[in-house]
# Entry
Amino acid sequence: MSDKPVSFETGKLRLKEPTGWFAAGNRFHRALTLLSDGAFKLFAYLCLEAHRQTGRLEATHKELATALGKSKRTIGTHIDELRAHRVCTVLPAKNQYARTVFEISDDYWPYHRGDPSQPSSDQRMYIDSVRESFLSLGCVSGRFTVADEQTAKHMHRSAIPLAVIQNAMLLGACRKYESWLNRQEVREPIQSLRYFESVIAEIQAQPLPAGYAAYLRRKMQQYALAAQTMQTHQTDVVLVPHSEPP
# Structure
């Protein structure tokens, strides 16, 4: 990397893309010469995606593997290398649904860090519960994105009880399965937590009867099995609507 000043005699340099840039200076170059190719590629991805004020990124090994086109085992090996060279610190996820927290070390982070607004332990537990419930549904994309986490934070600030969110997910998932199995729509998984916002509002206005959530959970399991059977054998499946009294 050259430290020579840029000459403007031939005209002012202009960026083609005004946003999305990362200050890849001497620290970045140091990592380039230190890390293996795969580990450096992971480091570069973490730098590009990390919050500029904190140098942190939350992600699962599966998300990183998908983004970089590698296996989860390979990603784990590269993470160990980053940690061994103290390029970043790693706070492992608490369970298979939660995300690992990566923080680029000061020696390799080019920005001055701001005061991080870390979620409280109560909010963190709330978000983790929402994530776990969302990912446990069989009709979702299998990813809980940064946007989904922001939606969960908004729900926490709005004081929406976890039980209401979980019941809305069950009801929404049953409706999604019904539309799939009755061939009322293309079989497209639920992509976002925001999909359930209207159902949450519906349940807030008219709470589910006692015991109905357990009934919905059983129906969802039945629908999931029926959907798997239909996909395997491409046969018609006769459904009993979820509105049937438990």
